[in-house]
């Protein structure tokens, strides 16, 4: 690979000189170092099949890792590339991956099945409605789960403002599992679409959607217990808003399974830290989230949330406030069930900065429906450790939130 020239992949470019992916404006697209290395290997042999063995050997020299570590890197790459670029990265089942050139010759395009033709027709209709951001020229084959790949790109980011994207992903995934009932990845992603219906309050998902989400991801785990499926099941068993569907024991077991399967995957460590923190094991949670953040030097905001929670449970409120601080502002209180603003206020109060904590409480009064300690406590899905939970609520009392 020429280390001076940039390489275009869909709507993004790889800049070898700066060692990063960039969008059209030159802004960096987040990609972990190991995932970046896998992408470099695919680009070096663009248009060719690169086997899993080759990728594992060259990306993890002298280290034995599972196929799931590679699968997670591929998922990271597709998310970073966006829908257009992700459509160029093709899975060859049981063999490896091909990063296609921008333009495929017409004779290379495989014949569509009847179902794929229906998907394209529906995509064209949605494009006319103005809410399609998938390419409408799929290159799927019966052996390659391109529908599931496109759906994964739609689900990237779990954006609460993109309900239409979630519904479109569900349509694609339902087609994928009907074509191949043994596709564990498609089942897990289909479960994710229902989990997002529940997790984003404005979408209105209830018990039925929650039960479907758990059933589908459990099926994915039974078919092929990948780290990502275990991680998602841990998240749902931890944070379900319905008490009868929460299970801290199951959440911990699945989070530990994810780390066992892919111990160098930062997301697995972060989810395990989250489970440990909400079950009162703050010291262990701190160790795991700090390790996750060493693996990922540019961590997403939810890592910082888990780090702050872990420090708070470990009774280190000053460090918790430091972790939550960068999140303060537009993202402090969001439309989901997880609000770092309350945690930041409690951390500040517990570390003696009651004036700053009170200012956050006052700002929340005009933006949040919770106006009391009892209302906040009711929203704390999954926080099963009573002692650390009460310390958190006591911090809000010090900040001026009434009982």
Automatic annotation (TrEMBL):
Pfam families: Trans_reg_C. Residues 4-101 form the OmpR/PhoB-type domain. InterPro entries: OmpR/PhoB-type_DNA-bd, Sig_transdc_resp-reg_C-effctor, TPR-like_helical_dom_sf, WH-like_DNA-bd_sf. CDD domains: trans_reg_C. Residues 4-101 bind DNA. One of its GO terms (molecular function) is DNA binding. SUPFAM superfamilies: C-terminal effector domain of the bipartite response regulators, TPR-like. The chain crosses the membrane at residues 117-134. Keywords: DNA-binding, Membrane, Transmembrane, Transmembrane helix. This is DNA-binding winged helix-turn-helix (WHTH) protein/Flp pilus assembly protein TadD. The lineage of its organism: Bacteria, Pseudomonadati, Pseudomonadota, Alphaproteobacteria, Rhodobacterales.
């Amino acid at each position: 690979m020429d280390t001076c020239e940039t390489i275009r992949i869909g709507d993004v470019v790889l800049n070898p000189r700066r060692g990063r992916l960039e969008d059209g404006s030159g802004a960096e697209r987040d990609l972990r170092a190991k995932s970046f290395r896998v992408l470099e290997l695919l680009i070096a042999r663009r248009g060719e099949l690169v086997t899993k063995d080759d990728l594992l050997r060259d990306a993890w020299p002298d280290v034995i890792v599972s196929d799931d570590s590679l699968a997670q890197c591929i998922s990271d790459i597709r998310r970073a590339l966006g829908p257009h670029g992700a459509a160029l990265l093709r899975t060859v089942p049981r063999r490896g991956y091909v990063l296609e050139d921008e333009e495929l010759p017409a004779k290379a395009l495989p014949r569509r099945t009847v179902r794929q033709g229906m998907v394209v027709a529906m995509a064209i209709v949605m494009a006319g409605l103005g809410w399609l951001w998938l390419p409408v020229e799929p290159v799927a084959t019966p052996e390659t789960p391109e529908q599931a790949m496109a759906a994964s790109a739609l689900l990237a980011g779990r954006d609460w403002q993109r309900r239409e994207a979630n519904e479109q992903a569900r349509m694609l995934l339902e087609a994928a599992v009907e074509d191949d009932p043994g596709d564990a990845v498609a089942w897990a992603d289909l479960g994710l679409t229902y989990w997002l219906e529940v997790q984003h309050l404005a979408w209105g998902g209830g018990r039925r959607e929650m039960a479907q989400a758990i059933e589908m991801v459990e099926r994915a785990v039974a078919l092929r217990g990948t780290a990502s499926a275990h991680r998602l099941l841990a998240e749902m068993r931890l944070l379900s808003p319905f008490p009868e569907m929460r299970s801290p024991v199951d959440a911990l077991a699945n989070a530990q399974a994810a780390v066992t399967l892919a111990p160098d995957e930062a997301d697995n460590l972060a989810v395990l830290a989250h489970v440990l923190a909400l079950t009162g094991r703050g010291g262990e949670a701190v160790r795991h989230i700090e390790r996750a953040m060493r693996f990922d030097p540019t961590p997403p905001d939810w890592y910082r949330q888990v780090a702050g929670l872990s420090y708070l449970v470990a009774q280190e409120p000053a460090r918790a406030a430091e972790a939550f601080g960068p999140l303060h502002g537009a993202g402090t209180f969001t439309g989901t069930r997880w609000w770092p603003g309350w945690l930041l206020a409690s951390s500040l109060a517990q570390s003696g900065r009651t004036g700053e904590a009170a200012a956050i409480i006052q700002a929340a009064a005009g933006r949040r429906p919770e106006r009391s300690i009892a209302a906040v406590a009711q929203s704390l899905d999954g926080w099963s450790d009573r002692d650390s939970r009460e310390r958190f609520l006591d911090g809000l009392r010090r900040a001026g939130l009434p009982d």
